[in-house]
Amino acid sequence: MLVDVRDNNVDQALRVLKKKMQREGLFREMKARRAYEKPSEKRAREKSEAIRRSRKLARKQAQREGLLSVRKKKAVASSR
Prior knowledge:
The protein is mainly α. The protein has three helices and no strands. It is flat, with a radius of gyration of 19 Å.
């Protein structure tokens, strides 16, 4: 993984690195490797993740076809 540091802006480079690591699933893998996971627990987790993914896919497909209404996100007022 490679991140360019522009104009000695290390903070921005760190943000980009964290985003790339998040996208690649490195944080999730590090968290999973902290402790041993029994094979039965691993199977159950992977099965539930697959179910969640398939439901999400089906929901997106139904929204594209117009069978489900698309929920609008609530507008958050920023007080800056």
